[in-house]
Amino acid sequence: MSEVEYEAVIGLEIHVQLSTQTKMFCGCGLSFGEPPNTRTCPVCLGLPGALPVANEMAVHYGLMIGLALGCELAPRSIFHRKNYFYPDLPKGYQISQYDEPLCKGGRLGEVRIHRVHLEEDAAKLTHVGASGRIHGSDASIVDFNRGGTPLAEIVTEPDIRSAEAAADWLRLLRVTLRRLGVSDVNMEEGSLRCDANISLRPAGSEQLGVKTELKNMNSFRFIERGIKAELARQEKILRAGERVIQETLHFDPNSGRITSLRSKEQAHDYRYFPEPDLLPIAISQQMLDRAREAMPELPAAMATRLEQEHGLSAESAELLAFKDELGDYFEAAVREPVDPQAPPQALANWLITDLTGRLGEGQAPLQSRVEPGALAALVGLVAAKRISVGAGRSVLDKLVAEGGDPVAIVEAEGLGAMSDGDELAGIVAAAIAANADAAERVKAGNAKAVGPIVGYVMRETKGRADGGEVNRLIAQQLGA
Quick check: 1 pLDDT over 50? Predict the structure, then answer.
């Protein structure tokens, strides 16, 4: 009897800190890294008699997110009190939205959106022991600066089937939100946090399995590793004939261990009821028009345009549009009036593969020493065969390290392509003589044996020889 195959079912809940000037329901300014408890007031501290007022810009940003995700925008939505007790929640409840959220439905890529709603963030709770360690602590301290920060919570349907797909989709969402300008989506500072609802079911089944929730993951690698670990844990439980318990979990990226935080809450556990101190939000036509006018070109539309305008492959266009700043860098480079002109697809290839591969992790091309015009000029030189591909990569190494002008680097380093065909033919002949065994294998039909001969030529010419011409001359001289 064959072993049961399981299918992952994953939904995400993403909390996005909105880039407003002030908090969700008071006039305190937002901050990151300020001295603790310096951005507070009676409203965000929940003092008696303090009344909240909804942040107009947060509602505007929420509408923009809804438009970008193709959601149905509610003509009327209300805030609720979500009641629970925790040290980082001074009021004893969080102002959120429950059954009348700002946005419902929608889609981003292949993943459906369930809802988008507005709420306030909790304060920041840090556990500190006698030795200063964060976990296994003796005391807890609370910084209320973050409390009340405007959040948009984006909840997906359970449409994701792997840890890799979850991380890829979250990257697409992040670049979409960044392009909207509604958040800096800085995961390191907590501006974008993700919870994952995870379950397994027999492949082909329509019935959902028991889900668990991984909380507060704040990097793509963290998310991918955490989901993989939880899927492996659940599969081990199911294959042992046991049942998965619905609960909230924590994944420790340092140890790779998953630990239980609490049994999974249900909506009734929070005793939701309408916030009596806030009026319902009524979305006017003026508010909708303002949100539509503020919408930029979104990544999916940008990918289609790059493909159509510049003749790029669909894969290249998507990579440029869906990766942070790559599309902006490409368009800046392709507009440069360089001579010879860089073919757009070649320029995209050099940007995606060669330039990004040479930059440090997290470094964007626009923040590098390589100006868009410099890359365009370099690709134009290679395309016109004024320098070889190998020489072009040497020039790019120099640009990444020091910046500068590719033409000047080519001249200073003597990297211009060889123009004397007889000289190159003589070097090829010497390479064949120096690698007689490889030459015999090539003549016998082993095309892969040509490597040592080509390597000899490239060393002798310092990468100035054109690879295609070298291979042509080798085949000609060997009669292969």
Answer: no
Residue 203 carries which DSSP code?
T
Domain final residue, candidates 380, 413, 446: 413
217 contact partners, CB below 8 Å, separation of at least 6: 193, 194, 195, 196, 223, 226, 251
Is residue 77 domain-resident?
A: yes
The separation between CA 313 and the C-alpha centre of its own chain, rounded to angstroms, equals 21
Instruction: Write the CB contacts of 4 (distance below 8 Å, at least 6 apart in sequence).
Output: 202, 238, 239
Mark whether 113 and 31 lie in a shared domain.
yes
- How far apart CA 384 and CA 135 sit, in angstroms, is 60
First and final C-alpha spacing in the chain: 55
- Pick from 402, 398, 396: which is nearest to 377 by CA? 396
* Same domain flag for 356 and 431: no
pLDDT in tens, 116-172: 999 999 998 887 765 555 555 567 889 999 999 999 999 999 999 999 999 999 999
- 171's tokens: 């990257």
Q: Look at residue 21 and tell me if it is in a domain.
A: yes
CA gap 427, 272 in Å, rounded: 81
Q: Tokens 């296994």 — which residue?
A: 136
If asked whether residues 385 and 399 sit together in one domain, one would say yes
Percent residues over pLDDT 90 in the chain: 67
Going by C-alpha positions, the residue among 418, 398, 315, 385 that lies closest to residue 354 is: 398
403 and 432 both lie in a single domain: no
303-314: pLDDT as tens digits? 999 999 999 999
Q: Which helix (H) or strand (E) holds 436?
A: helix 436-443
Reported pTM: 0.81
Phi, psi of 192 (to 5 degrees): -135, 115
Domain that holds residue 458: 421-478
Please indicate, yes or no, if residue 1 is contained in any of the structural domains.
no
76 and 159 share one domain: yes
Q: Is 213 helix (H, G, I), strand (E, B) or coil?
A: strand
Are the beta carbons of 372 and 325 closer than 8 angstroms?
no
**What does the pLDDT average to over 186-201?**
92
Same domain membership, residue 466 and residue 443: yes
Q: Report the number of distinct structural domains present in the chain.
A: 3
Identify residue 401 by its one-letter amino acid code.
A
Residue 157 makes CB contacts below 8 A (sequence gap 6+) with 11, 111, 112, 113, 114
The last residue of one of the domains, among 413, 434, 455, is: 413
